[in-house]
Amino acid sequence: MSEQVLKMTREKYKKSSTSKRQKFVELAERRTVNAIKAVRVIGKLGNRSAYEYDDEDVRKIVKVLTDEIEALKLRMKSTKRSDGVDFKL
C-alpha cells in the first residue's frame, strides 16, 4: 500500500472512531439526565399525604431499580443485550 492510502485509511478510522465517541457522549449525557429525572419523579411518590404505600412497596421499587443498575454495569462490560422490561407491585 502506498503511504497516501495508509494515511487516508488512518484518517478515516480516526474520524469514524471520533464520531462514534461523540455520539456516545451525546446520547449518554442525554439519557443519563432523563434517567435521573425519572428517578426523581418516582421519588415524588414518597409524599405520604398524597399516596398510600408500605415498606414492602418501597423495597420492591428500590430492588428493581438497583437490579437494573447492576444490569447496566454488566451491559457496559459485555456485548450481551437484554431489552425486557417488567415491573409490578
Please render the helix and strand layout as text.
Layout: H1 3-43, H2 55-77
H-E string: HH
Identify the overall geometry: elongated
Query: Which regions contain 5 or more consecutive residues with pLDDT less than 50?
Result: none
Radius of gyration: 21 Å
Based on helices, strands and strand pairing, what is the structural class? mainly alpha
Please tell me the overall pLDDT. Answer: 88
Can you give a write-up of this model?
There is one protein chain. The protein has helices spanning about 5-45, 55-75. The chain is mainly alpha-helical. The protein folds into two domains: about 1-50; about 55-89. The longest helix is centred in the N-terminal third of the chain and has 41 residues, at about 5-45. The chain is elongated. The model has no long low-confidence stretch (mean pLDDT about 90).
